[in-house]
Recover the amino acids of this structure.
């Protein structure tokens, strides 16, 4: 049996890996690590790992124990970042390298994607229950609210001054609650997508033009499209709604005139595995990037769940609707946010040729 050369194995490793020398400097980096860290091997070689990366673990102590005991060491739940992107929750594994006493192999296993995949089905199930309950409550609450508003308007006919202000407040707040309930009902009424081959750039252009003359008129919107992308299988109207919601979210996040970038590209590596063991590649990537203040770290992991919002007056339904529609399209939505740069990425399958 012919074994592959060590270099081929190193370059094919799907897990980010770094070789550390006796002075705790980076000796070599595999392609997966370059992609994950968004840094080239050339820029990392010869640097101590702490110079380029922020890792919430005592690396010097870890490397020292691995060298001393000549045994692997596992460290779970560690945050890793280059300082230019949001911290990613990872597991680390440090191991000695063959007969070389000082060299250490460091494997970085990102947990973010696996954790979100694990939560996705739970969130989807919880969302269905929340939607059903919300629809029932919305229907039951709207009728008495109409009665309260009507009674307040009748009372206001014979009032003046501060008493009139109070009845006006009752009417205004009642209307605001009714409007929120109508949004809840709309969220629950999203039909199943009617999937057909769709050119994703046609959908994006439609959403961009609508945003440019409306809520996004104060923003500078630029595109960086890959014109060679094949069509996806989806519902053009629902996908337009997804991108409108993301563009609106980006526009509202900016305190003044800001910038939004829409980017598309093809990536082979992402594959969604379902609970039944089947899998599907999601190579079509769409990114909506803004330069706003970012999403608070404490809610970033729950931002796609119903009624979670980073804005004071937000309903928490816009991004939940995005997640629901993309899930119905067998796709994936993810978030990467730091102050000054927030990126939503939509990953979609390619339309089969027979479609």
């Amino acid at each position: 049996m012919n074994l592959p050369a060590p270099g081929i194995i190193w370059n094919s490793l799907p897990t980010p890996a770094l070789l550390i020398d006796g002075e705790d400097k980076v000796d070599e980096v595999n392609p997966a690590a370059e992609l994950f860290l968004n840094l080239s091997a050339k820029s990392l070689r010869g640097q101590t790992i702490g110079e380029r990366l922020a890792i919430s673990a005592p690396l010097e102590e870890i490397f020292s124990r691995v060298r001393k005991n000549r045994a692997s060491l596992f460290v779970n739940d560690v945050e890793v970042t280059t300082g230019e992107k949001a911290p990613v929750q990872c597991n680390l594994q440090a191991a000695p390298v063959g007969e070389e006493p000082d060299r250490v192999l460091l494997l970085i296993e990102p947990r973010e994607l696996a954790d979100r995949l694990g939560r996705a089905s739970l969130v989807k199930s919880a969302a269905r229950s929340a939607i059903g309950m919300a629809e029932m409550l919305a229907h039951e609450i709207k009728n008495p609210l109409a009665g309260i508003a009507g009674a307040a308007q009748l009372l206001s006919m014979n009032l003046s001054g501060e008493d009139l202000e109070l009845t006006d407040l009752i009417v205004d707040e009642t209307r605001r609650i009714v409007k929120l309930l109508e949004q809840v009902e709309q969220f629950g009424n999203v039909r199943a997508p009617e999937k057909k081959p769709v050119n994703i750039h046609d959908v994006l252009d439609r959403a961009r033009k609508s945003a440019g003359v409306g809520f996004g008129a104060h923003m500078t919107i630029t595109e960086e499209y890959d014109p060679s992308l094949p069509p996806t299988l989806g519902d053009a109207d629902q996908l337009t709604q997804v991108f409108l919601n993301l563009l609106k979210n980006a526009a509202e996040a900016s305190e003044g005139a800001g910038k939004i970038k829409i980017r598309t590209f093809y990536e082979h590596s992402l594959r969604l595995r379902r609970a039944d063991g089947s899998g599907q590649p999601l190579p079509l990537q769409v990114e909506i990037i803004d330069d706003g203040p970012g999403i608070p770290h404490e809610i970033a992991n729950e931002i796609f769940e119903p009624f979670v919002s980073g804005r004071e007056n937000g309903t928490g339904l816009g991004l939940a609707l995005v997640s629901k529609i993309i899930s119905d399209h067998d796709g994936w939505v993810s978030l990467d946010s730091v102050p000054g740069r927030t990126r939503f990425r939509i990953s979609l399958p390619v339309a089969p040729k027979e479609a």
In short: The radius of gyration is 25 Å. The mean pLDDT is 79. The longest helix spans residues 112-156.
